[in-house]
Automatic annotation (TrEMBL):
InterPro entries recorded: PI-PLC_domain, PLC-like_Pdiesterase_TIM-brl
Keywords from the UniProt entry: Signal
Any matching Pfam family: PI-PLC_cat
Molecular-function annotations in GO: phosphoric diester hydrolase activity
PROSITE patterns the UniProt entry points to: PIPLC_X_DOMAIN (PS50007), PROKAR_LIPOPROTEIN (PS51257)
Name by which UniProt lists this protein: PLC-LIKE PHOSPHODIESTERASES SUPERFAMILY PROTEIN
Signal peptide residues on this chain, from the entry's feature table: 1-30
Organism expressing this protein natively: Salix purpurea
GO biological process, one term: lipid metabolic process
Length: 284
């Protein structure tokens, strides 16, 4: 398609400009974490140019902010008593090799996000090319220009992380457009993630606390998965998101001082029979 070719040309030229800028400033590449810098554009992608006077470092350096693990502060609490960093459209980053024109919400791969402290991933799944794909699309359909990559790729990244980190728990929130029979079940089975599955039968139904993190780790039930399709709790044993989670409005409308409206699909934020809260905080 001519439009796609134009897009690739613009994208390539943009990347070339950034590369040349980095070569000009740093000699061989963009600046790495910890190196002194003059602006964000001189640092590697995902880094920002900042100073930290608190530790006596007044010179600006390429920096990445990494959250501390909530369980490192206090141990023994129920899963719902901790705050877990979650990314929106976690799969939507530029380094996937796809021609997607959809917005890129993340700079890091899912693997990098997990290594840097993210423990909740929001994934949009669709039927596409006789498979399950991650897409940022519309009207319930995935297209070549909205597709990022097959879901199995990211699910295997998650499996690799869980296998290498036996005390960590990951939650997946699926915006679910999959209609193929047992489509999600098949892709999760193929990824190896069923080994870590937290069963729907153990999820609190009336606002009670979840099991403790220690209990979930000991039983190796370290993957919590929710779907936006209510029918799949019965047909595929994947928890229906809005039965267990309340969520505030995303985007600008969810960032107004003194207000915390729920998004349309969610129960009100003060619902007492649901013990998990998904808190959006990003502009649109």
């Amino acid at each position: 398609m001519k439009g796609s070719n134009v897009f690739f040309s613009i994208l390539s030229a943009h990347h070339l400009f950034i590369l040349l800028l980095c070569l000009f400033i740093a000699g061989s590449s963009c600046l790495k974490i910890g190196e002194t810098c003059s602006s964000n554009s001189t640092c590697d992608p995902g880094l920002s140019c900042q100073s930290c006077s608190a530790n006596g470092n007044t010179r600006q350096r390429c920096t990445m902010i990494q959250p501390s693990s909530p369980t490192s502060k206090v141990k023994g609490l129920a899963f719902n008593k901790y705050s877990w960093l979650t990314t929106h459209n976690s799969y939507a980053q530029s380094d996937t090799g796809s021609a997607s024109l959809s917005p890129k919400n993340q700079e890091d791969t899912v693997t990098s996000q997990l290594k840097n402290g993210v423990r909740g991933l929001m994934l949009d799944m669709y039927d596409f090319q006789n498979d399950i794909w991650l897409c940022h699309s519309f009207n319930g359909n995935c297209y070549n220009f909205t597709a990022f990559q097959p879901a199995i790729n990211v699910l295997k990244e998650i499996e690799t992380f869980l296998a290498a980190n036996p005390s960590e728990i990951v939650t997946i929130f699926i915006e679910d457009y999959v209609t193929s029979p047992q489509g999600l079940t098949k892709v999760f089975n193929a990824s190896g993630l069923r080994e870590y599955w937290f069963p729907v039968s153990k999820m609190p139904k009336n606002g009670e606390d979840w099991p403790t993190v220690d209990e979930m780790v000991q039983q190796n039930q370290r993957l919590v998965v929710f779907t936006s399709k209510s029918s799949k709790e019965a047909t595929e044993e994947i928890a229906y998101n809005w039965k267990y989670v309340v969520e505030n409005q995303y985007g600008d409308d969810g960032m107004k001082a003194g207000s915390c409206p729920n998004r349309n699909e969610s129960s009100p934020m003060n619902t007492k029979t649901i013990s998990l809260v998904l808190q959006n905080y990003f502009k649109t």
